[in-house]
Amino acid sequence: MSSVEDGLILMDEMGKLDSVCKLLLSKKQVLARILRLALKEYSTYTDEEIITNFIKGEPSVADIPVHRDDVTQLNTEDKTATEGTAFYDVLFNAVIPGTNDTAEFIINIEAQNKYHTKYPLLRRTMYYCSRLISAQKDKDFTKDNYQDIKKVFSIWICFTPNEKNKNTISRYKITKEDVFGKPEFHESDYDIMEGIMICLGDDENKQNELLGFLEVFFTSKKKTNEKKQILKDNYGMDFGDDETEVFGVCNYSEYVLEQGIEQGIKQGIEQGIEKGAFNTLTELVKEGLLTLAQAAQKAGMSVAEFQSKAQL
Length: 312
Prior knowledge:
Elements: H1 3-25, H2 28-38, H3 47-53, E1 55-61, E2 90-95, E3 104-112, H4 121-134, E4 152-158, E5 168-173, H5 187-190, E6 193-199, H6 209-218, H7 224-235, H8 243-266, H9 275-286, H10 292-299, H11 303-310
Parallel strand pairs: 3-4, 4-6
Antiparallel strand pairs: 1-2, 2-3, 5-6
Helix pairs in contact: 1-8, 2-3, 6-7, 8-9, 9-10, 10-11
């Protein structure tokens, strides 16, 4: 099989991995844990209370386009020559505590495999927030009834951040700055969008529960059975009837990683390293699936040689 064919197979497998990650993030037990730990409005409730009382309906998974005006109608696309079609990974509404079901948030969760993009990822986060607000026109509010705009959250879970940003959580929102005098405006009238960046590390962070349980799922190198036990013992997460589907994600992520490594090795045996395989290993490093040291070892090079050849 050619290196091009191998690369296409790996790309296909990575696409499937992206899909199963979104599926995992749409599970209500996972959503409830994220809401409780990431949004202060839900911090005093149990996961079960959040599932029962606040998460509305079933979350949509990769079927609501970003570039259209009505975020509630499913399975329609808005394509342009430059943008293609972008879909929200996970999108759902949640009742705001203390409002007797009369007010809701709109919440988007994104699983981001590729951290190093040609654009600042945070700009995209805030763009998604803006789209979620503008899409409410003529649905959640009509004419000039801007008081009916729902606050939106876009929460980005980044699997492969740079070293400086690993194991960090940051929040971005609109705040008031008094330039002259002290005008009185209600915070709820300008605090209508919030972007949250959750940058995972390589293994379980025991100092932060939100980072810890997400890292066990997505970035820990531990085997599936060990992950299952850690989630149960350390985080009280037992998926019951959903266990097979949920932990199939862990199995699949292990499989894709191993496939990527093996395809890199397979193409790199003759004459030190064949170009197609070297490119595969380089891409695996860029995506954060291999470290420089691991890739260099597979290529039979020193780290310095590999880094120089790959121009990393």
